[in-house]
Write a structure and sequence with these properties.
This protein has 404 residues and is an alpha/beta fold. The chain contains 15 helices and 13 strands.
Length: 404
């Protein structure tokens, strides 16, 4: 038996007037997901424990079977694992986004945050900018590390975990009240703007009609994580397919295999087919039992506030990831159980994460059912199936039975 999780990050949403008061998931043309739903079960699962931040960190830990209340120590330490940073117990890791701030006259704190991803800046350009920042600001206490696209890392030696604001939570807002209280972090953010605003890379981006990556933004602080082995916990050899350092870091912490897919970038135009083929190959040719395929694009489009592009991302996920995996495993003659879901909602209307329950779809190739429902939030809620503890879902996938 093979097991597949396909996670469309931030795929869940609210009804949108321009889509006929449907959600992007309900509006999108998703024949593969709808066919699997008709032969499987749908329901709702709460992936975010009450009182915890509705982030991709807590939610994906939950979907992988790790109770965030026990295992979560911050977002950035998980990303540090992916980058290969061997954190000391006394280190604090912080996410270092390269963001776009408004550039009107006035002090730094009066600027507005326009884009948390700087138009999904490519890693090659971001690395040049981060090195420029590091050359001036890195010292024995603070070290910068290049990640992927706009997502990078700051390690603070003997630092303190800070309560910091995620940039995607305050898009369009004046940044003053959201800046770090720690003077050293605030000074580095202010100085990064001076270093980056007229950097040649950003001048070239403006000339191409792209937003400049003109400031660092620190958030997601935490300490060294400690996850138990996925294989020891579930008695399955597991692999991760993702372009995002957070997911790769969770996999490293759980001693799962991380599969690098060329052209996978976490954006709308990622290598969907490459991810699907990597998932099929690891299960059918490499002897692995479990694969987790993470697609970031729906979340990014939600943060951008674009319902059109979010619909497109969901349709790409359906036709270019889910269908090829389904067909590839069938052609290989493998029995399999496939779980499809978001980690959390990222409603287009508010451009950030929320913590409501999300719809899941579970299909077992050995036990096809007959239903008339389709896979979306409304129909999943109507099914009556509800899993209150997201970290229990992995046991339901692997062992079967019921946790409703």
């Amino acid at each position: 038996m093979k097991y597949v999780v396909v996670l469309g990050d931030g795929m869940a949403d609210l009804p949108i007037e321009e889509l006929g008061n449907q959600t992007p998931l309900a509006y999108a043309h998703t024949p593969a997901m709808d066919a699997l739903a008709a032969m499987g079960e749908i329901g709702m699962v709460h992936t975010i424990p009450e009182g915890m931040n509705p982030g991709s960190d807590t939610a994906n830990l939950s979907v992988l079977g790790y109770d965030p209340r026990k295992y979560y120590s911050g977002r950035s330490p998980l990303e540090a694992l992916s980058i290969g940073v061997d954190m000391k117990d006394t280190d604090v890791a912080l996410r270092c986004n390269l963001v776009t701030l408004s550039e009107e006259e006035g002090p730094y704190e009066e600027r507005r945050i326009l884009d948390h991803s700087s138009d999904e800046i490519p890693t090659e350009e971001a690395a040049i900018l981060l090195r420029a920042v590091a050359e001036e600001l890195a010292d024995g206490k603070f070290q910068f590390y290049v990640g992927t696209s706009y997502r990078h890392l700051l390690i603070w030696d003997r630092g303190q975990v800070q309560d910091l604001t995620a940039p995607h939570d305050v898009l369009g807002q004046t940044i003053g009240e959201h800046l770090p209280k720690e003077p050293a972090l605030r000074r580095m953010m202010e100085r990064s703007y001076e270093i980056l605003k007229n950097h040649p890379v950003n001048e070239a981006r403006r000339a191409r009609g792209l937003k400049p990556a003109n400031s660092c933004w620190f958030w997601g602080a935490g300490t060294r994580p400690s996850l138990s082995s996925f294989e020891e916990k579930n008695h399955l050899r597991g692999a991760m397919v993702s372009a995002v350092d957070l997911l790769k870091g969770i996999a490293v912490g759980a001693s799962m295999k991380v599969i690098a897919v060329e052209g996978a970038n976490g954006g709308l135009h990622t290598n969907y087919e490459g991810k699907a083929q990597a998932a099929v190959d690891i299960l059918t040719k490499k002897g692995y039992d479990f694969v987790y395929v993470h697609v970031e694009a729906p979340d990014e489009m939600g943060h951008q506030g674009s319902y059109e592009r979010k619909v497109q991302a969901i349709e790409y996920l359906d036709g270019r990831v889910i269908r090829p995996i389904w067909e590839g495993l069938k052609e290989a003659g493998e029995d399999f159980r496939m779980l499809i879901l978001p980690d959390h909602p990222t409603p287009v209307a508010i451009r950030t994460h929320t913590g409501e329950a999300v719809p899941y779809l579970l299909y077992d190739s050995r036990l096809p059912q007959e239903h008339t429902w389709k896979y979306n939030e409304q129909e999943a809620a109507k099914s009556g199936r509800y899993i209150s503890e997201g970290h229990a879902l992995i046991d339901y996938l692997i062992a079967g039975g019921t946790v409703c």
